[in-house]
Amino acid sequence: VGDQSTLWFRSALLADGWADDVRIRIVDGRIAEIRRGERRGDAADGGEIALPGLANLHSHAFQRAMAGLTERRGADPCDDFWSWRAQMYRFLDALDPQDNQAIAALAYAEMLESGFTRVVEFHYLHHDPKGAPYANPAQMGAGIAAAAAETGIGLTLAPVFYAHSDFGGAPPTGGQWRFVCSIDMYADLLAASERAVAGLSGAVIAVAPHSLRAVTEEELSALVALAGDRPIHIHVAEQQGEVRRCLEVHGRRPVELLFDLAQVGPRWCLVHATHVEPSEVSLIARSGAVAGLCPITEGNLGDGVFPADEYAKAGGRFGVGADSNVRIDAAEELRMLEYVQRLTLRRRNVLAPGPDTSTGRGLFEQALKGGAQAAGVAAPIGLAAGASADIVSLKADDVHLVGRRGDPVLDSWIFSAGRSLVDGVWVGGRAVVHDGRHVRRSAIERAYVRTVEKIL
Ligand SMILES: [Zn+2]
């Protein structure tokens, strides 16, 4: 018998619905047994309301330290993604592996405090500031793994392949030298990344062609071959400028091109997929791939609006990602996703799964399934026997939850209260957030402050 513990919750959203007085027995980080309608007995008090933890399916952790530094318009009245990217490149020029680790640790602590229990780190900063590979090609990725170990968040590390500055294989430009790999270098990076996460329980390595701008057709095929059965993540159709260039060079839109070039299926996560025609919406939905939606960042960058209503009606799968980490809040990502649809369509409860059903519950369960699929987490997921014990508890005595039980709890968390409701968080059965605060927050904050003061 391995490492055992038992948690008791007053109510819990189990894989088959809400239940009261729930005892969850955990063995070696996994849920061994769930019993309902039981007294607490000798179990530890987990808290009032238990939810399964969500996966944050897209993160660039280092960008957390830039949050709030790009909210000033330059001389160009048409400030957009591309001017933001120029500032982001200047920022990342200064980062060394330790800086990256310190920033990621704070971002991951905040993710845990907001209800995310796993992160997919779309990691493209590989080489030293001059663009030379480190002796260990996964030196920067090892910093990400160390930040995951320090905070306890589940990690899906997606080392990014990046080789070109534009469609048609254009050479990389200044600001991109720290990302650039050949396919041979990438194969070494992938192996080194596997070694970097070897000590992390439940870690997954994904393969990430950056985008169709940064990868040629031949390189994409080579990456898919290298991926084997790993998840594959790619940015696609985030920007209208990107769609225009793709049409000029390839005569097809990015999502169309991707489906022509690769057998896109459930292992794939199409990050953003913002600018899609109805035919592309149905291509993605039918493929079983996950659309990786990042509503707060897409709003911050002025990207555009993904047609989530049409996509959901076609049976499309989605999850949410904090992407630039300008704000880190699982509930707020779900709220923003729904609100953008409401503002666009001038309707309410757009993403509710059916008549007289809770929008919050629908959003949460889609993001739970889609996030786990994209992160490469094997079934079962959620609060069910056999799943990893990734649990988030909410404070039922918070004023925002007075008189709520069941689905209205999710609706109130998502649409009213946000991350202040999160009480305790366990990943693989290990308590990492207590009373809404990461257990190592003070030390993590100190290292973060030192790092950012040095960089700025
Ligand atoms: Zn991204």
Written description of the protein model:
- With 456 residues, the chain is an alpha/beta fold.
- It has 14 helices and 17 strands.
- An eight-stranded mixed sheet has the order 3-2-1-4-14-15-16-17, with helices on one face. Strands 5, 6, 7, 8 and 9 form a five-stranded parallel sheet that branches. Strands 10-11-12-13 form a four-stranded parallel sheet.
- The radius of gyration is 21 Å and the shape is globular.
- The mean pLDDT is 95.
- Bound molecules: zinc ion (ZN).
- Zinc ion binds next to loops.
Give a quick rundown of the structure.
By secondary structure, this protein is an alpha/beta fold. Helix content is 37%, strand content 21%.
Primary descriptors:
456 residues; alpha/beta; eight-stranded mixed sheet; five-stranded parallel sheet; 17 strands; 37% helix; globular; binds zinc ion
